[in-house]
Structure formats: C-alpha cells, structure tokens
Specification:
About 40% of the residues lie in helices and about 20% in strands. It is an alpha/beta fold and about 325 residues long.
Length: about 325
C-alpha cells in the first residue's frame, strides 16, 4: 500500500513538533527526490524503507523531545509556600526598618550629653566639650570615673564630680577650680601655680582683669634653673619645681610664715631662701624641710628667734635655720 506524499507530510508534522533538529517534510522531500537505478523516484520501490524511517522518527520524538509534565503540588503545599514567602518579606521589611532607625535608637537610649556644669569660672565650656569628646558620644564608650580623671587633668580643675541622670540620659558635672597660689618662673615664662602644684596658665595669656590683680599679689618662686657645675639630684627644672612645691606645702601645712612673703628662691642644694615683703622689719630666712614635722619645727624656731631679736631690738639681715636645733644670725 502506497501513502500519498501529502498525507506523509501531514503525519510527519503532527509527530515532530517545532524546534526538532530535523523536520519530517525535509526528510520526505529528500526521500521522494532521490532517484533509483531507473531514474524514477524511489517512492514505490522503497515503500518499506519509508515506513521504517517514519517509525524511527516517531521513536526519537517520543523519547527525547516530548515534555514531561511535573506532578501537581497539593493545594496545602502551595498555601504553605505562599505563607513562607509572605513571612520572609515581612522579616526583610522589619530588618530594613530597624537599620534605618538604628541611629535614632542609639541617640535616644545610649547617647549622653552634659547638661549642667557648676562652679566653673576659669574653665570654659568649650574646653570641657573638647575633653568630653575624647570619651565618645555614648555611655558604653566610657565611665564616670574615667571622665572625672580626664577632667581633673585639666589645669584649672582641682576636683570634679560626675553625676549620671537617666531618662533622658545626661551627665551633670560639678567642678572645683584650682586657686592660684604663687607665680613660678618656669622654663622662661611666669606661670600661675596652684597649691596642688599644677601649672595653671602663663601670665602673658591672662585677659581677666580680676585674675591679673590677684596674680600681682602672689609670692614668686624662682631659682628653678639648675646651676652649671653643681652636682645635685635636682638636675632639671621640672624636678626642682616639684621639689620646691612640696617643701612649700609642708611649711603651709605647718602654719605658714609669720610675715608676708614676696619671693621664694630655691638654692642649688635644695634650701629655700624666703624674702619677706617688709624687708625693713623682717630678715631673710634660709631653711629646709623634707617632712611636715621638720617644717613645723623650723617654723617654731623662727618664731622664737624673731621674738628674741624683737625684744632686744637687734637688727639682722638673715636667719639660717638649715641645721637642726640651730639658728645662725647674720
């Protein structure tokens, strides 16, 4: 039985979908156009071969090109998948929102600010802000103790108290400023010095009129430059300055001198030469002390010598109290 060519072409297109590498019509056209040995088309002669090739084409299409439909998901699985997708989208939205609000949350909960600074006259608020900036802007970056220690390292701050207040988070600072005690000739400049031995401020930088007047009435401290050729453990200006301040504090705690002092001179080997303001009435005094008890004993002997010379109306230029239980008058 011979199939008409049109019917074979139609069958090939039904069996082979679009996109197959070789098309049915092209194969059949090739088959019909191939001549046999007699020069005629080989349709009748090769009827059996045509059917075999058509069957082979059908097998290839069935095995390799027909799409396989995946099994349909149950309705419950599709619902669970949709819920999981919506939940994931909600979590993403929440995280994005928190990321955008993180700075606001930190500023409202952890960021602190200084709201009150009391008893600060010589210390400016700008200087305090600069010191506070070293500790960061958030509470967990520092502690009240470290803030207090930083404030007390400032020249004019003798003592600081830091109070923490909650809601809103803030710090209250209470400053006890240093009192100028004397003026030291230190490293080529005249410095205000506190009783704690802090170099407060050079006189040339003072603009406050009241402070200028106060500084003019303070005693001076000189002799801090080491002398050449003199062997002493006080071999630097800083060492001599610290030593002189400690000795003067011993004498102040022991009751102080019985006259107003114009100047203290630190001698090369560590003795103090005290120059009174009223040098017509009181002599210079040379003394030394390495403890409060020694200072107290020297002051007691000084008082006794002044009383004795006053009763006898004896005029002396200098009293040497460097040696224990002795007083040398000159």
């Amino acid at each position: 039985m011979q199939f008409p060519p049109k019917l074979l072409q139609l069958a090939a297109f039904v069996i082979i979908p679009a996109g197959v590498v070789f098309g049915g019509s092209a194969l059949l056209d090739k088959f019909h156009s191939a001549p046999n040995q007699g020069g005629q088309p080989a349709v009748a002669a090769n009827r059996t071969n045509t059917l075999q090739e058509s069957e082979a084409i059908t097998l290839v299409v069935d095995a390799q090109t027909l799409p396989q439909e995946p099994p349909a998901k149950p309705e419950s699985d599709r619902q669970i998948t949709a819920l999981a997708r919506r939940a994931a989208n909600s979590v993403d939205a929440l995280l994005f929102s928190l990321a955008g609000q993180s700075e606001l949350i930190f500023n409202n909960i952890f960021r602190f600010e200084v709201t009150t600074v009391s008893h600060a006259y010589h210390v400016s608020k700008e200087e305090i802000r600069q010191t506070m900036a070293e500790h960061g802007a958030y509470l967990f970056q520092s502690t009240p103790q470290s803030i207090r220690e930083s404030l007390e390292r400032m020249p004019w701050v003798e003592q600081a108290r830091v109070k923490t207040r909650l809601y809103p988070l803030r710090l209250e600072l209470e400053i006890k400023e240093a009192e100028p005690w004397l003026v030291a000739e230190y490293e080529g400049a005249s410095w205000l010095v506190s009783s704690a031995g802090k170099l407060l401020q050079p006189l040339t930088t003072i603009s406050d009129a009241e402070l200028i007047v106060q500084a003019s009435e303070l005693a001076r401290l000189d002799g801090l430059v080491p002398e050449r050729g003199v062997e002493s453990y006080l071999s630097s200006q800083n060492a001599r300055f610290r030593y002189a301040v400690s000795v003067l504090r011993f004498f102040e705690l022991g009751g102080g001198f019985p006259f107003a002092v114009e100047r203290f001179t630190l001698e090369p080997h560590g003795a103090l030469l005290v120059h009174p303001v009223d040098n017509a009435r009181f002599p210079e005094v040379e003394l030394i002390a390495s403890s409060f008890e020694e200072a107290q004993s020297s002051l007691a002997r000084l008082g006794a010598v002044l009383d004795d010379t006053g009763r006898r109306q004896e005029r002396v230029k200098r009293i040497d109290l460097r040696f224990q239980n002795q007083a040398i008058l000159r």
